[in-house]
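Marked as duplicate of an earlier ticket. Keeping the data here for the record.
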Amino acid sequence: MYLIDNNHALDDESPQTQSAPKVVCINGMMRTGSSALTRGLGALGLYLGGQIQKSEARVNPTGFWEDAQVYDALHRVYRAIGLGDHMSATAANIPANRWDRPKVKAIAAKLARYMQQTIAQADGHIVAIKNPSISRLMPFWMRMVKLVPCNDCYIVTIRSPKAVAESCRRAWNFSRELSDALWVQFTIGSLMPAAAGRAAIAVDYDQFMRDPSATLHRIAQWLDVSFTTEVRASVKDFSANFIRSDLRHFIGSSKATTPKLPQQIYELLQKAALAYEPLESEEFQMRWRSLAPQMTTFTRHLDEIDAKRHKVLAKRIYWRGRSAIKDTLARAKARAAGRIR
């Protein structure tokens, strides 16, 4: 588990230097407002990448604001470590030795070269890279940025597990159990850099949607970005024309209750977000480590959850396959009898 045993991702760690180019990584659980926030960082003048992923009308009509090359690389990592094609394919724990696979290291080297090119294209601007998958693949990501090298820092987007579960249900028909499991796994991964001393802050979805300008102003101070007249006008335009109330697809509470651990983690991070507390601070890290026993117990059950989910999917595939075979045979018999030509 990343919280307790993250040495496999941090071996031969080299110290950051202030002179190195700064790269901001926006990560956290899916459906926590990271896309809107990343677009807001663009309003601050941060460079979001050379080729942005296309939007998906049903899931995210205003855009994902993810670099397409980074997106492709992360999905190749998923396949290389045996988790399929998508970050939501499984909530199971990832064995530490999978990060050492030659194919994973090759992807890291290639992505590091692309990041070097991206930094050069940014022409002095801070680079912002957003992708929720980074949270799940954080050991890979932290090894990769050491190859760049760069001064990496992190923004962790958070949102109520209950609201995330409802949003995931509407977008992808996730069960509540799967959503909560992914919420914990993604959040644990997203906090790994802070545990290693990297600069990190949390941004609360509801706080950002209520007052995007104030949130972006705080981030600008954290990143040492000058809030010039031009930036101020850009942020004002973003707040007025990009952030809309209809983007908040779930407000309020559902009948389902949130398991204790996801709620505890959310409240811990929400408090840090509202207080502008650095996640790498010893005070926050002490509170974070106090949840280690509960997280260890929770994550032990995730493999069971994943196995049960795949068993259900296997049954669906089996019965769909049988139905297709029956239909094919029926059509063949009809064709032989001359009823279908």
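See parent ticket for discussion. The longest strand covers residues 151-158.
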